[in-house]
Design goal:
21% strand, five-stranded parallel beta sheet, 9 helices, 40% helix, alpha/beta, single chain, four-stranded antiparallel beta sheet
Length: 240
């Protein structure tokens, strides 16, 4: 197996972690799985390394010296769409939701098994690769107050542009392409995150919440993206 991996393109990982026990074990384990690992032991070093080199994925702890994982995630996401997986002992729901809202792709809590983490890494990379082609079209969608320029990946609400992340754009596009139709949670996750997604389904709720905050007049009482309890979501075609 080792010879086979050596002939394949190795994935470059930026590991941002200050606990030496995790650094040593994870570096050895990931190297065996075909990953090249660079290590940053505090938040500022992570930003410096990320600016100097190109990485395929970032594994990011939350509790870091000098600069929090929260701020590192924000800084990276402000300039790059590189996949980010949060790896932290902080497993409270509020932390997971916050990380997803600022652009993390997945969240793994300590302690974890190397096999699980590797599976998450590969799943995120596969989804990112497949999502590169999701928006490869020169179509335009106009429905109600929303206009989406698919080719330029731009979205407008009542003529004003709103900024959407890739998965938010893909999710809104899917809803607009199926007006009035109930899309189950399973279908939405499968189409936007991929059939191999193994993360928490709370991810979908976080993205729906953010979309509502951008397109609804009253996000807590949505007129367009409505919830069908126990089933999924639907984009309502409202009359003028």
């Amino acid at each position: 197996m080792a010879k086979k991996r050596s002939s394949e393109k190795r994935v470059s990982v930026l590991l941002v972690e200050d606990e030496e026990s995790f650094v040593d074990a994870l570096t050895v384990g990931l190297n065996r799985e075909g990953f090249d690992v660079a290590v940053a032991r505090d938040g500022q070093q992570a930003i410096t390394l990320f600016a100097k080199d190109t990485y395929d994925i970032v594994l990011l702890d939350l509790m870091l010296p000098k600069m929090s994982g929260l701020d590192v995630c924000r800084a990276i996401r402000s300039t790059s769409e590189v996949p980010i997986i949060i790896v932290s002992a902080k497993g409270e729901e509020v932390d997971m939701v916050l990380m997803l809202e600022i652009g993390a792709d997945d969240y793994v809590t300590k302690p974890y098994r190397l096999r699980e983490l590797v599976a998450r890494i590969r799943a995120v990379l596969r989804r990112r690769e497949s999502n590169e082609n999701v928006l490869a079209s020169d179509d335009e969608i106009t429905l109600g107050p929303i206009r989406m320029d698919i080719d330029a990946r731009r979205c407008y609400v009542n003529g004003e542009e709103i900024k959407l992340r890739k998965k938010e754009f893909a999710l809104l596009r899917l809803l607009l392409e199926n007006p009035g139709r109930v899309l189950t949670r399973e279908v939405l996750i499968d189409r936007v995150w991929g059939s191999d997604y193994v993360g928490d389904t709370k991810t979908l709720d976080v993205h729906i919440k953010r979309l509502r905050s951008l397109i609804e007049d009253e996000p807590k009482n949505p007129e367009h993206i409505t919830t069908v309890r126990g089933v999924g979501y639907r984009y309502e075609v409202t009359k003028p």
